[in-house]
Amino acid sequence: MTKLSTDLQKKLVALTRDLILIPSDESRPDDIDRCFEFIINHLESLDSIVIKKHYHCGIASLVVLPKNIDHPKVLLCGHLDVITHSNTHSYRSQVTDGKIIGPGAGDMKGPLAVLLEVFMNLHAKYDDLSFGLAITSDEERGGDAGMRFLFDEIGLRCDVALVPDGGSLNEITVEEKGIVHLKIQCNGHSAHAARPWLGNNPLERLVDAVSRLRKSFDSLKEGIDHWHPTCALTILKTSNQTVNCTPSEAEATLDIRFPAPYTVDQILNHICNILGDEIDTHTIMSAEATRFTPDPLYLSVSEEITGKPTLQKKEDGGSDARFIGHHNIPVIVSRPIVGELHSLDEWIDISSMETFYHIYERYLERKLL
Ligand SMILES: [Zn+2]
Asked: Taking the complete model, does pTM exceed 0.85, yes or no?
């Protein structure tokens, strides 16, 4: 059993554990609603703010701003959705070895608890602080109806955004790879497998094409930090169920990641050239690679509070931060110490949550007062 040393730790742990109990994943929209209600109930105790819920394609987001401010200087951004675990009883947590362990503890119910706590406390302490809060519910499925919608279509803007969904306590993410999720398909006609020359086997042609792709992406490898384009085959299937029959269609999905200066168009052209005319492609989702410019004040506050230098890191995965950076808004991506993300044993380190709270608090006070 972990002894919690401060009231702040107790509060952050209780709030995180309450959030983990709500299985707010995409397969349970009622629980996503319940999680929003839980958060709104907390926020409603503040008089000085306006809470607005937005919907796009049935997916909800929350924007909380001080009265009379629609362009806050700082915007805290988070998401309440977690990835799906099939068993509802998995959504619980335990506190051991100074960590909260449970699904979503690190990504990002623990960081969300810090956002809520710092938002509530600073708005209660000072009048007219120009900072807001945006919480979405579709980050784990791409963020299109959440953060992208808020910035591209609602026109939400801020001077700086804080997104605690990447990096670590002393590691600020300054670059994220771009993403292409691609479905590829091939058609042919089936035959008895004893006479394959009578058919035209699309599965074999698809497999050949994928292996051409692999060779090509292998040739782009450079350095030891994998900061080059990668292409992973994630699904390969055919509707054929018969062992002695060749299929008439085959389909695969690819997950491609690439750093700047590569662009989505360049990557798609490259892939289409290698696949050739016989393979149809369909882009499921794409996002450009992003570079962020963190606020120097944030870096110095982090170093002051932790007593350690800050490292600027590149991230292989993408986050909602790209939708904000896209509008040339400085984004700061860092978070408490977390691990085992997306597993049932996901964890967040409790004392790093407290340190992270103090970094946010001091940065916001310096920036806004
Ligand atoms: Zn996340």
From this structure: yes
Residues 182-216 have pLDDT tens digits of 999 999 999 999 999 999 999 999 999 999 999 99
Q: Are residues 43 and 155 in the same domain?
A: yes
The whole domain housing 277 covers 178-287
User: Residue 311 C-alpha to ligand 1 middle, in angstroms?
Assistant: 20
How many domains does the chain divide into? 2
CB atoms within 10 A of CB 153: 11
Task: Indicate if 224 and 302 belong to the same structural domain.
Answer: no
- Domain holding 207: CATH number? 3.30.70.360
CATH number of the structural domain spanning residue 315: 3.40.630.10
Per-residue pLDDT tens over the stretch 266-279: 999 999 999 999 99
Q: Ligand 1 being an ion, which residues bring their Cβ within 5 A of it? A: 107-108, 139, 165
CA 71 to mean position of chain CA atoms: 24
- Give residues with Cβ within 8 angstroms of 116, minimum separation 6: 15, 39, 42, 43, 133
Q: Which residues contact 232 (CB under 8 A, 6 or more apart)?
A: 254, 255, 256
For ligand 1, the distance from its centroid to the CA atom of residue 279, given in whole angstroms, is: 34
* pLDDT (tens digit per residue) in 65-109: 999 999 999 999 999 999 998 888 899 999 999 999 999 999 999
Ligand 1 centre distance from Cα of residue 81 (Å)? 8
| Residue at 207 is within a domain | yes
